[in-house]
């Protein structure tokens, strides 16, 4: 089963897999359709992208984690353009850690490499791009270590519920400077694109956990 929001890529992968002797029992374009289709078709393996409608954030990966929770033996291969660290670790820990994979699209050098990885996952193996491993290991460190002392100070004030204007007054800087600090904080904490309010909340949660 294939879950990919891009029509061109979805059709291309369907044709590619058929060329190598695989049958795509269903090809869907969003995470909800993926979750609904699995019990209907009972696939041998699921290939899914991470970002899919409606939010284009981590819907596909979240659906994969949900499916593995309901069916721990279901092989799942994530094929994505980036590493979504929040759910990647959870996916790789799901079930007994077998029959799961996470590959980055831009790092798949040959078609045969992808097809071999898919076969390995379907057979119960585990295939993880080295870049995914590197980023997951980095996630285990203190997420605030990348922040400068000033950025930590700004984040602490955000955690107290201060507005940008209030932070500017407290630190005796301009609101524009505060905005730049906040932008740098969000980037360094690897927070997913979302509304500014949502990202501030995630930054505060990261601060409190650390």
From TrEMBL:
Recorded superkingdom: Bacteria
Modified-residue entries (4-aspartylphosphate), positions: 49
Domain Response regulatory span(s) in chain numbering: 1-120
InterPro entries: CheY-like_superfamily, NreC/VraR/RcsB-like_REC, Sig_transdc_resp-reg_receiver, Tscrpt_reg_LuxR_C, WalR-like
Keyword list, A-Z: DNA-binding, Phosphoprotein, Transcription, Transcription regulation
Keyword Transcription regulation annotated: yes
Residues in HTH luxR-type domain copies: 140-210
Entries under CDD domains matching the protein: LuxR_C_like, REC_NarL-like
Any Pfam family hit: Response_reg
Name of the protein this chain belongs to: Response regulator transcription factor
Organism (species): Streptomyces hyderabadensis
């Amino acid at each position: 089963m294939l879950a990919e929001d891009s029509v061109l890529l979805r059709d291309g992968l369907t044709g590619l897999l058929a060329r190598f002797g695989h049958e795509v029992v269903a090809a869907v374009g969003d995470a909800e359709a993926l979750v609904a289709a699995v019990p209907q078709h009972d696939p041998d393996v699921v290939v899914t992208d991470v970002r899919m409608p409606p939010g284009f954030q981590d819907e596909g990966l979240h659906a994969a984690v949900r499916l593995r929770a309901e069916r721990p033996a279901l092989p799942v291969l994530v094929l994505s353009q980036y590493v979504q660290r929040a759910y990647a670790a959870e996916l790789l820990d799901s079930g007994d850690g077998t029959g799961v994979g996470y590959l980055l699209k831009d790092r798949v050098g040959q078609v045969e490499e992808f097809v071999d990885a898919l076969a390995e996952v379907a057979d119960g193996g585990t295939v993880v791009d080295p870049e995914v491993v590197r980023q997951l290991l980095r996630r285990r460190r203190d997420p605030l270590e990348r922040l400068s002392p000033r950025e930590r100070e700004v984040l602490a004030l955000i955690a107290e519920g201060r507005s940008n204007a209030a932070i500017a007054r407290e630190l005796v800087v301009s609101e524009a400077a505060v905005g730049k600090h906040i932008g740098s904080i969000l980037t360094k904490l690897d927070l997913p694109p979302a509304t500014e309010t949502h990202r501030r909340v995630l930054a505060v949660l990261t601060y409190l956990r650390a």
